[in-house]
Amino acid sequence: MKYSQKFGLLLLLSLILAFSMAGCSNESDADSENSDEQVEIKLGYYSSGSADEKMEELIDQFEEKHPNIKVTTQNAPYSQFFQKLDTQIAGNNAPDVWLSDGVLVSKYAERGAAKDVTGWIERDLNKDEYYGLDFNKDASGKYFAVPQGIQIGALFYNKDMFDEAGVDYPDDTWTWDQLQETAAQLTIDANGKRATDDGFNSEAVNQYGMTFFNITEGWMPVLKSFGGGVLDEELKNSVIDSEENKKAMEWIVDGMQKGVLTDPSDLQSFQSPMSPFPSGTAAMRIGIYARVLAANETGINYDVTVLPKGPDGKRFAPVIANSWIVNNNSSDEKAEAAWEWVKFWVTEDEVQKEWAELGEAVPVKKSVANSDLFLNSGDNTINKQAFLDSFEFAGTLDTNAVWSEWLQKFNDNINRAFLNETSIEEALQQADKEVKKVLDDFYKE
Amino acid sequence: MPKLVDRVKPLKNRKRKKLSAEGRWGFLMVSPYLIQFVVFLSFPLAASLYFSFSKYDMLNAPKWIGVENYTTLIQDPVFHKALWNTFYFTILFVPAQTILALVLAVALNQSLKGLKFFRIAHFIPVICSWTVVLYVADAILNPRFGLANTILVKLGNNPQPWLSDEALIIPVLVAVAVWKGVGYMMIIFLAGLQNVPEDLYEAAEIEGAGVWKKFRHVTVPLISGTTFLVLVLTTITTFQSFEQIYVMTSHLGDVTSAGGPNNASMVLMLYLFQQGFSFLKMGYASAIAWVLFIILFGITMIQLKLQKKWVYYEK
User: Fold this and answer.
1) Which residues of chain A make contact with B143, given a CB cutoff of 8 A?
2) Would you call A268 and B257 a contact, using CB atoms and an 8 Å cutoff?
């Protein structure tokens, strides 16, 4: 008799489950039936403070222009947003179009979650009019995302500190060696001695020549302009263990040992690894465009120029093109509507202008980026042209499907070299071995 | 024989009906829990067991690969490190927190004025979020401006990189975790202490027992049930500790560095999270979860077995 009760219970539970599932599918059936006239799309984006309000406004404008498309939104702070998104993709209820961090586009593209939008781009966009489209192109020439706003790296410098030390401001003729020589003159210890003086104490630095952190605003631009890097052209093999990388690493470690560049443990003293420059504790930084906001907020007297050249004259500006991705699992109708939103975003001057006013990213549309609105906006008129000039030698951070994973392995190893716990050769060899394993696990089935 | 059975049957049937009516009500009453259990617990549990034998990146359907995840796990140096760190953390944390909680509870179990204030004060860290604790900890542990190094330097020692030294990181994290968690266990001990009958102490006093002897021979045996509960709870939560390490070692915002420096603070839960959610290796992460489950199950079993030797229950 107990069995029959258990059986009954099981039946009851499966019925409840079945009904709830039926409930779900009924809902979506109803959706697609109504959609002859009205398409409802879900748009996902990660929050970034004041930008949320503007995003809502732009969505309203979009709905006005496209009365047949209704947009529902889903937003959350950065890390929650992506966690939820991955789960939703697994459950097949992800947004129809979402904003992806530029470094994560390949993660979705190579795993089949992002729709191939090559055809639509060819049809609707004149590629020459936009910055950064190619940063989302895969090796076979397909596009999987369209930039929403672009972050590109340049050299930020604190003019007051340069004036005080009596040295010339950096310009486009600088090499990395020149940068480090100048940085030494701008580094001051607790006793007021500069790194170029006798008796300078590199263990107690009060003002750093340059702050240096992680990949984008740290080692990647140096490695690349020295001719090195992490992955080959195909982005599937490691090229870590190279002479060029060794030279670049020597440049970095040398600067850290002298106390001219911040090493990973120096940064522990700060509220955030981003804060030395805006707080006036470092004379220079490699910074993406968004760093302008923090620097303006603290009111330091600064400017920007292009990043220095490597020993052979090579330059590299790191790029993160945060982009719109259309869901590969959305129905054709919803995907088309989602594309309308993407098109609206990049082609409409008004949208581009309003977004540019927030000052969070370089506008995607070249005409807007090169207008006064972008170049001369705000109270603090810095040389924003430097960011645009940098597009000529810009590149991604060797982003592929397993970017975060190889990055962690790479960082673990080179940080040990930065802290002098291992030699540069050993760090690079070990990093090479570990990164290779990550790549092979994913690409060589 | 068959005849007899036939004759009994109607009676049995009636009884059965009665019972099942009652049973139905019973099941109806527990159904919210049961449904919750099936939908949110047993189904995910079974799914994760299946995932642990497959390659699953969440974005595509899982692919069965047999025991490969487990064999990779056995050879994975980071997993070894995480396993060791988890044990190391637990071995330092569980005794430290339990003893300190007991000492605090005994001290705060007196009938003096103002004790409520101290009870509350010790409980405040429990209700703070780890992000808040991080800022408090930074005021002490900041390598340049923190209290700890300021004192060290004043005493003529070298400042220590508390959170970026591979050897220091786990003990430092344990110290902060004890500070944050001790209040909760203290409350449980306080509840246990208040159940110890006062006359037992009086009897012990008449026998000539001092403070220590009263504690050792009256308090300790009588709260052994509470101590056991505290030990089991602390061990399980320690093995699953995640948030603290995630928040305190992710280098103030750089999440990829969580578990650092150089994996010196990588624990099982953090490794699981990273593999599953940051690197989309959900199959591998599920395998880690099952290994963690087996370890926890084993330890709890051992604790249950051992309790017979030292836990005293009032009949």
Assistant:
1) 265, 268-269
2) no
Helix axes A176-185, A243-257, angle to 10 degrees: 10
**Measured between CB atoms, does B164 come within 8 Å of chain A?**
yes
List C-alpha distances in Å: B24 to B17, B18, B39, B284.
Answer: 10, 10, 20, 42
Q: Which residue of A has its CA nearest to B40?
A: A17
Q: Which CATH class is domain A154-232+239-319+385-398?
A: alpha beta
- Whether B59 sits inside 8 A of A268 (CB atoms) is no
Q: What is the pLDDT along chain B (315 residues), one digit of tens a residue?
A: 455 445 455 555 555 555 688 888 888 899 999 999 988 999 999 999 999 999 999 888 899 999 999 999 999 999 999 999 999 999 999 999 999 999 999 999 887 888 889 889 999 999 999 989 988 998 999 888 889 999 998 998 888 888 888 899 999 999 999 999 999 999 999 999 998 998 999 999 998 888 899 999 999 999 999 999 999 999 988 988 898 998 888 765 566 678 878 889 999 999 999 999 889 999 999 999 999 999 999 999 998 898 888 887 765
Q: Which helix (H) or strand (E) holds B24?
A: helix B2-37
User: Does the complex come out with an ipTM higher than 0.90?
Assistant: no
Q: Cα separation of B315 and B307, whole Å?
A: 16
Range A37-150+321-375 has CATH code 1.10.3720.10: no
Alpha helices in A138-200 (DSSP H): 159-165, 176-185
Query: What are the C-alpha distances in Å from B104 to residues B72, B91, B109, B226?
Result: 45, 20, 8, 15
Interface of A with B (CB under 8 A): 1, 4-5, 9, 12-13, 16-17, 79, 83, 86-87, 89-90, 107-108, 111-113, 214, 264-265, 267-274, 402, 404-405, 407-408, 411-412, 415-416, 419, 421
Q: Using CA coordinates, name the residue in chain A closest to B275.
A: A405
Q: Is A369 helix (H, G, I), strand (E, B) or coil?
A: helix
Please tell me which of the candidates B142, B252, B274 has its beta carbon nearest to residue A273: B252
Q: Which residues of B touch A407 (CB under 8 A)?
A: 256
d(CA A32, CA A224): 49
Say if residue B25 is in the same domain as residue B96: no
Identify whether residues B86 and B233 lie together within a single domain: yes
A206, closest residue in chain B (CA to CA): B144
Find the domain containing B299 and state its range: 72-310
Query: Any idea which residue has 């030279």 for tokens?
Result: A247
Neighbours of A72 (CB within 10 A): 12
